[in-house]
User: What shape does this take?
Amino acid sequence: MVSSKSLKFFCVISILFVTIACKEKGGQLALPKLGSAAIDFTCQDLKGQTWNLEKIKGKVVLLRFWTDWCPHCRYEMPVIENYYRKLNKEGFVVLAVNVKQSPQVAEAFAAQFDVTFPILVDPDGKLAQRYGVHSIPTNFLIDRQGIVQEIRVGDLFKNKNFMEGLLKSYFQK
Amino acid sequence: MILSILICTLILFPSQGSGNSEKPDEVITRFQNQKLSIKWDPLTKAPLIIRGIESNLLEIKNFSKLSREEITHAGPQLVSKYQSLLQIGPDQLKLKGAEKISDVWYVSYWQTFQGVILYESSLGFSIDSHGRIKSLGAILYPDVQSPVTSRMSHEAALKIGQSQIKDFNKLKCRLMAESVLIYPVRKKNSVDYYRVYAFNFFPEKALHPATTEGGWAVFVDSQTGKVVLYETLLKPMGCCVPEDWVPPKPEEMKPKW
Assistant: This one.
């Protein structure tokens, strides 16, 4: 028979152990860096499909964090859609992660802009946090080897040649 | 009789074919002799998406000659035409944005209630160069149950809002935006509506374009003073773009190779 004191002691030790373990794990979480492997994730899109790095292996991926209230997210969505339609068959994937909004908001937005690329939903912002996103929009370009080749905070087209030049290097024959 | 059966069949069974095979959540229905594919919001019972099948939702005549302001009238026209489906009136729209990108106009609106914007509501669509609107996307709340006046003063609400921010003075926080909004809180089977004072606070250092510091949003219920939303804000980059920045021309934004 385990005494009440022993049980309490065991519980306290267990809680302490779990707390320390989580903190250590949290402390070790590195943010994505240029030239390093992209951080794996699991996230669902509006159609219920699950996305992770394995699924996009061998593709050039634009991972974009956005919201419907951000002016540049609105303005650039159709532009990105143009690139996606042109380059999708060649292996260009856009994963547009809606941050901290309801799936309904994301869905209505996608319909308004005739977006055909996957809209991922991150209602509690965990994926955004994992990727160190503090500003909207934030873009990560991940190459076919799964390496982060570009981190771009803000709009992609402020410098009109930026996106063009970047994608050209992957897709121009 | 046959027509009734046909209508029921179309409503009850999710669309298949007709170019809609990828949209299993949408149902095909007939509305004023027009075939539409609609996805409904199960909570509000309002449409999330309406697509015209075999016809457009709206065709605007002499579209190429219209000014930007005239183009923004498309929203009220669309709502008038589909009012019984959308369950709001044209006078409830407030323009959110209208941009032309690659010959296509993208127009969106907020829904208002007694002139007050509903937080995260929207109705938007694209218009092609021929003036055709093929579909719309929306977050609408047809049955808003909200007070039309505030019981507490703005000053009192602001104090409550500020008190939510730890080290408000030390961080030199500034009130960057404020408004009165209707804040719909989506619950499992219903929506609660709050008329709120909405405040956005940013610490001084967050305002520098080079920092990634965010701020806070605090929504204070205008009836009870209760804080109904408190969350950290991601920094909107749109706020920090220089005013003299000119968006690139549509032809510069198309892939060139």
Q: What stands out?
A: Residues 2-139 of chain B form one domain. The CA atoms of residues 108 and 124 of chain B lie 4 Å apart. The radius of gyration of chain B is 22 Å.
